[in-house]
Structures are given as structure tokens and as C-alpha cells.
Amino acid sequence: MSILENKVIKIEEGTKIREYLKTELGLSTRLIRSASLDKRIFVNNEAVKMNRILNVGEIIKINLAKDESQDIAPEKMDIDVIYEDEDILVVNKKPFMVVHPTKSYQSGTLANGVINYFMESNQNCIVRLVSRLDMNTSGLIIIAKNQFAHGMLSKEMSDNKVEKRYLAIVHGNLEKDSGTIDLPIYKPEEIEDGVKNGIRRVIDERGQRSITHYKVIESFKNASLVECKLETGRTHQIRVHLSNMGHPIYGDTLYGFGEEEEDLIKRQALHAYALDFKSPRTGEMLELKSELPEDMKELINKLK
């Protein structure tokens, strides 16, 4: 059972628990309502209503466990767990794996494997994705185990307080060893100027401001290993920005020359290798990393 506990240290006279939970603990209205209806909010070990007035020294406990179900079939698969606690699970997604079931991919997704992992480890959790990756991008993904963690981390994500770093293998050698790309990314209309567009994004002043900080980690004969840190999180941001610089990612069929490079690598050489963020419960900074996958290591050996 996952319990969130807080001792009231300082409070204005007449403050109701609903207000305290929102302002002091940062809980969402939705979570407070749900937990209240299920009688999962306690003061001094007694279930209370949300108009209860709080006093200094009282102990608030919220039972975060909730009976929930999800229409995702469990499938046994090898899940690479990088970090786990009572609130979150961080996994290293393999390339060629869809994150969540869709019409085209009903099974074999990361979510199918995670649901099975929760069942086998006797954890009554559903899959609450905090972050996502394209099917052919490998790397770290955060999954919240409860509504509290999901709400807190989703807000951190939308406020750009989760630091996301990627490694990409690109064509050519960059002029500068480090720099910032600040160019707007736009999704064209489905049909524009008589041409049908798919999921491709473009650099266009009509788009959203998009910022990528890059640093060259290693240079090869006609290629580079580049670290990219996202300040914003637009769809395909790194791929669009690097391609626009004239340094598309190896294997990228949408923004590079991927179809011609299948003998080198069978997907875009992009890996979400590092995440830095605060634990939703303790506020402790978590700094998580994963190794380059084998196909990217092999590509580097071929390019050396």
C-alpha cells in the first residue's frame, strides 16, 4: 500500500484540508476528489471530508492505492528497468517498439510488457505514461504508478523541469562543438498546396518555438556523435533541427537518407539516454542514464 504522509507544520487559522492539499502538497483537484470519494484521505488516522479544518501538528495520510483496470493485455517480455520506487518506474525502451497499443499495434508494445511486469511483481498499477518516444527511438521512459506521481511529473514535464538528453549519430562534422538551435517547428496541414503531408514537421515561422542545445561528444571521418538537450519537447524536434543544420541523423527515413543506409542501421540512430528530474514524493533529484544500444555501437564502429 502506497501512503503519502504529511505533518502540518504551519497553517493559517481556518484552512480546510482541500485547500491545504492543493496549495501545500500540489495535489490536483481530480486526485483530491477521487481520494475523498473513496475515503482514502485521513487526518490523525480518521477518514475526513474536504471541509475539515486543519490544525498545526496533525498528520495527514492519503492512500494512493486504487482499484483500477486498463484494456491492455499483459505480455511477458524482457523489460529493462533502470529505476523503480513506490511511485515511478523508469525503463529503457528497445528500438522498434511502440510505447502504447494503437489500432495498428495491438500487442507487443511497451505498455503490454509493463502491465505484465506489474502483475508478476504483485503491484496493482496501471500504465500511466509520463513521457513517450517514437517507435524507432530507443531510451528512457517514465511511467507513473499512481495518480499522484503522474500529476506531479506531468506538470514538471509541461514546465520543462525534466531534463531530457539524447545521443544522436549524424552525418558530417559540425562547425561548432556546441551550440543552441532555436527554430520554430510546424506541422503542415494534411493537404497543403495540393501535396498530401503525413507526420513530417518543418521549420516554419508559423510553428511553435523549439529549442535544442547540442554538444559534439566524438567526431569521426564524416560523422559525429552528438548530445542533444531539449529545452522544449516538440514532435521530432531533434530530427528536424539536426536535419535543418545539414546534419541529418543516420538511418532517419523521414528527415535524412535512411532508406539508403539500411546496411548501416535499420532505424534513426537516436537514443534518449539521460533523464534528470525530482522524485514526486521526496523532492530528491534523480539522475538516470542508460547505455547506447548495440545497433548504435555497431554503427559507430562502422563509421570509425
Automatic annotation (TrEMBL):
The keyword Isomerase applies. Residues 87-243 form the Pseudouridine synthase RsuA/RluA-like domain. It catalyses: a uridine in RNA = a pseudouridine in RNA. Its EC number is 5.4.99.-. InterPro entries: PsdUridine_synth_cat_dom_sf, PsdUridine_synth_RluC/D, PsdUridine_synth_RsuA/RluA, RluA_PseudoU_synthase. Belongs to the pseudouridine synthase RluA family. Responsible for synthesis of pseudouridine from uracil. This is Pseudouridine synthase. The lineage of its organism: Bacteria, Bacillati, Bacillota, Clostridia, Eubacteriales.
